[in-house]
Amino acid sequence: MGGKRRKRTKIIRVKPKLPKTFECPRCGKVSISVKIKDNVATITCGSCGLYTEIEVPPVFDEANAYSKFIDMYLEGRLQIKERTNENTEEENEIEGESEEIPHGQVE
Ligand SMILES: [Zn+2]
């Protein structure tokens, strides 16, 4: 058996160089944005309002800061500051509940 065929499986993945948005561990949406300034990464979720700041080494980029944030979040040692503006309205009303109770008993 000769003639080994060289299989060239070329998987071309179009990867964005540096994704600026990451998945939020709380709401699951890809709406986390990371900004680094003065060794402090500011992490905000544009969806659920999660907001926190973590210290990062100068070599960290956004992706590094994000993974550190995830670690800290999962370990529960993250101070999460909410960024909700007037979101205190609670809607506990259940709509669409019909009160049609079939009568099976005839007295
Ligand atoms: Zn979120």
UniProtKB/TrEMBL annotation:
Gene Ontology BP annotations: transcription elongation by RNA polymerase II
Annotated region (Disordered), positions in chain: 81-107
Name of the protein in question: Transcription elongation factor
Superkingdom, taxonomy of origin: Archaea
Lineage: Archaea, Thermoproteota, Thermoprotei, Sulfolobales, Sulfolobaceae
Database matches in NCBIfam families: PRK14892.1
Composition-biased stretches (Acidic residues): 87-99
Organism: Saccharolobus shibatae
PANTHER family: TRANSCRIPTION ELONGATION FACTOR 1 HOMOLOG
InterPro entries noted in UniProt: Elf1 (IPR007808)
